Amino acid sequence: MTDLTLKAAQRELLGKKTRFLRRQGITPTHLFGHGIKSMALQCNTAELKQIITKGGTTRLIDISVETESHPRSAFIREIQKDEISGQLLHVDFYQIKKTEKITANIPIILTGEAPALKSKDNMLEQVLSEIGVECLPDKLPPQIEVNLNHLEETGQSIHVRDVALNKSISIMTDPEQIIVKISRIKAAVEKEEIGEEVLEEVDAEAVQTEIETEVKTVSEEEPKG
Predict the structure, then answer these.
(1) Are residues 114 and 179 in the same domain?
(2) What is the pLDDT of residues 156-207, one digit of tens each?
(3) Which one of 15, 91, 120, 172 has the largest count of C-beta atoms within 10 Å of its C-beta?
(4) DSSP assigned state of 15
(5) Which of 76, 95, 114 is the last residue of a domain?
(6) Where are the beta strands (DSSP E) in 122-193?
C-alpha cells in the first residue's frame, strides 16, 4: 500500500458523452498496462486533483476500483486539460507490477543557497530539470534534491555524476550532463570586456607616447651641420 489512494468506478459513458460526467464533478480516466486488460474508469474530480497535486507523475498510487477486493498500483501517465479554462478533461493511469523495474524521469529540486550568488554579477543557470532513473516501483523517488551550498565561485557546476541516490536506483541520464552552474551576468561580462579594451587602448597610447618621446630625444641630441 502507498500513502496515495484513489477511489474509482468502472465507466460506461465513452467518447463525447463524457462531458456529462464532468458536469457532475466526475473525471473520465483510463487504466492500462503491460499484460492487463485496459479499463475505462471514472473518479471524483476533487479527489483526483488532490492526488495529482500530491503525487504528480512520479508517485505510486493505489487505485481502489469498485467491485474489486485489491487495489491496483499505478502511476499517472498523462493528464489532459482544457488549454483555455484549465479544466481537467482526462487522466491515464499505467498499472505496474511491483516486481518489475520501471524507468521514469524524476524532477530536480534545488535546495540550499549558493555562496557565489552573493555577488550581484553572478547568476545560477539550471540546465537540467529532471533525471532519468530505473528501479523497482516502490523505490522510485518523488524528487531528486540537489544542494547548492558548495557553489562558491563563478564557473563551478554540479553534474549528474555528483548526485547520490540509493544503490537500488540506477541513473540513466548521461553522468557528464550539467545540472546547474554559476555564470557571470551578461552585463557584468560586457563591463569587464569594455574595461579590458580601455586598458589596452591606454597601454597602446602609453607605448606610442614613449616611442615618440624617444624619437624626439634622439633627434635633439643629433649634432647640427
Answers:
(1) yes
(2) 999 999 999 999 999 999 999 999 999 988 765 555 555 555 445 545 555 5
(3) 91
(4) G
(5) 95
(6) 122-126, 130-135, 144-147, 157-159, 170-171, 178-184
